[in-house]
Amino acid sequence: MLKIKNLSKTYKTGDTALSDVTLEINKGQLVGLIGPSGAGKSTLIRCINRLVEPTSGEVWLGDVDLAQLGRSELRHQRRRIGMIFQEYALVERLTVMENVLSGRLGYVPFWRSWLRRFEAEDIRRAYELLDRVGLLQHADKRADALSGGQRQRVGIARALMQTPDLLLVDEPTASLDPKTSRQIMRLLTEICAERGLPAIVNIHDVPLAQSFMERLVGLRAGTVVFDGPPTDLSEDALTEIYGAEDWNTMRPGDDDESEGPLDVERAAEVMA
């Protein structure tokens, strides 16, 4: 379980990105973060794994307060948190398999990671995960030869290689077309259900979030202004989150069963 208590972030400029955010995320629960640009959604995700340092508050993953850890212990605990990025954060010149195996960087000695030497069990699991995300036949391709949807699937497999207790997903569909976006959201939903894995998903597409998330948290100016199931997301709630607008035309899209920026160094810091 993830417990966030009175989490706040104020930058040196005096701008407040988060203000006393308190949330609990249970095992296997998918939570969608919605809200306008600048509402604090990405900041909240990055404060959880401390890519952004919170100003105050607590972030409990199980019985560990991540907000209070020193650098060495934080590195150890980050292995429990899988991160999936909007811009994939893959090493383009490496193969799909090598990118997936990089999810084990926090578990192997430096010299093994430098030489890209991994245990046989890690390699077996990587093949298993590539099969699960539908990319087994692309294992030996370079990452820069893949489509956007395929790259995002590699990112999902890489995060799962950490055997995480929590997934943080930052705008996973922002660079994808509508059909591929639904496929990626469906894959995330299925994987979290299979593994009892909680996930927080920062997502701009509200109808897509309504279709796939079981709980939505709406942020406005760094404050939680909505927390509930998608069925409770009324026009009044949307106005509270985003401001006045005609919300009558916004509806979740029809399901479709057919297939179809963060730099790499920062991604490696999270995984290491």
TrEMBL record:
GO cellular component assignments: membrane
Domain ABC transporter, chain residue ranges per copy: 2-246
GO MF term (any one): ATP hydrolysis activity
Record region (Disordered): 247-266
InterPro entries: AAA+_ATPase (IPR003593), ABC_transporter-like_ATP-bd (IPR003439), ABC_transporter-like_CS (IPR017871), ABC_transpr_PhnC (IPR012693), MetN_ABC_transporter-like (IPR050086), P-loop_NTPase (IPR027417)
Domain of life: Bacteria
Keywords per UniProt: ATP-binding, Cell inner membrane, Cell membrane, Membrane, Nucleotide-binding, Translocase, Transport
Entries under CDD domains matching the protein: ABC_PhnC_transporter
Record protein name field: Phosphonate transport system ATP-binding protein
Organism: Sulfitobacter marinus
